[in-house]
Amino acid sequence: MSLTTSTADAAGEHRTRTAPTPAPSAPRRTPRPGRILMVAALAIATGYFLLPVYWLIIAATKSTERLYGSSGLWFDSPQLLENIGKILSYDGHIYLQWALNSLLYAGAGALLATLLAAAAGFALAKYRFRGREAAFKAVLAGVLLPHTALALPLYLLFNQLGLTNTYWAVLIPGVVSPFGVYLCRIYAESAVDDTLLEAARVDGAREGRIFFQLVLRLMSPALVTVFLFQFVGIWNNYFLPLVMLSDDRKYPITLGLATWQTAADRVPQLVQYTVGGAFLSVIPLAAAMLVLQRYWRTGLTEGSLKG
To answer: Which residues contact 56 (CB under 8 A, 6 or more apart)?
Structure first.
């Protein structure tokens, strides 16, 4: 009897000791006014930048008549696939030719620009030679020059060489990226260790092999950033192709859509084709940004911290 009672008492004490105690409720934090203002400002800025994209998506689904006769911020008899089919088949599939030209100019130009920027940035960061700082300052000056200011001198130069109205007239200027050289130098100074380079040289590796098999891998976040910025810059370039090209079969999308907009007074459906073509032209850029954002954000932050 006493044993049963003592066991029950012990069990009761054990339940008493192991019973979970309610956690003290955390004090509710009141958002500071500064944080509320910052969030509100960011929300307004986000809406400001996304509103044109939203309008473009809505407008791309409408017919030419409903483009002007309905609200610009909501759907009205959407026919996106039909519009896309008309755009791609208009004037002997000229839009597809413009898209291929843009891919050539932006893809090849950005790839070559990235490779040249990596080589120049690595050389400026790791090799000691006379005039190194003067060369780097010249590169910085190139960052500040607007592209439109260089278009006319480039046209005169390419005209002397007989390269105007050719693919080279748009492709060659695109392989130069002063910002890419600047970013690659900053990144190479911190990401490429001198002792690693010396160890590779001691093992018998030549400079070319060190650059292509070691340095490019170490600098990959910065290279993705340079490639993405240069790709977007060439893709959206309008003035240089306008100056250099006269054959509409060699136009990029930007210049081709401008010709459609100019001709819309005579052919009204070109208004809708211009809007739909602009919608199609931003899809590759959005895809590239989404796929490569992890790399280019790393490249930008590394360059800003280690510079």
So the answer is: 275, 278, 279, 282
Nearest residue to 223 (alpha-carbon basis) of 296, 279, 140: 296
Residue of 237, 240, 247 lying closest to 155 (CA atoms): 240
3-state helix/strand/coil string of 223-242: HHHHHHHHHHHHHCCCHHHH
Taking the CA atoms of residue 56, residue 62, residue 66 and residue 71 in that order, the dihedral angle to the nearest 10 degrees is -40
Q: Can you read off the two tokens belonging to residue 130?
A: 């006379």
Token representation of residue 215: 């340095």
The neighbour count for residue 222, using CB atoms within 10 Å, is: 28
Residues 6+ away with beta carbon under 8 Å from 281: 99, 102, 235, 253, 254, 257
Give the Cα separation of 107 and 105 in Å (integer).
6
DSSP structural state of residue 105? I
The 10s digit of each residue's pLDDT in 9-65 is 544 555 555 555 666 666 667 778 889 999 999 999 999 999 999 999 999 999 988
Question: Which helix (DSSP H) or strand (DSSP E) does residue 292 occupy?
Answer: helix 270-306
The Cα–Cα gap between 174 and 151 comes to 12
What six digits make up the tokens of 169? Answer: 């007239």
The answer to whether the Cα torsion of 114, 119, 125, 129 is positive or negative is negative
Q: Write out the two tokens for 136.
A: 């780097």
Q: How far is CA 106 from CA 7, 74, 183, in A?
A: 82, 33, 19
Q: What pTM does this model have?
A: 0.84
Nearest one of 162, 148, 160 to 241, comparing CA atoms = 148
Distance CA 194, CA 207 (A): 13
The tens digit of pLDDT for each residue in 289-301 reads: 888 877 766 655 5
Phi, psi (5° rounding) for residue 73? -110, 10
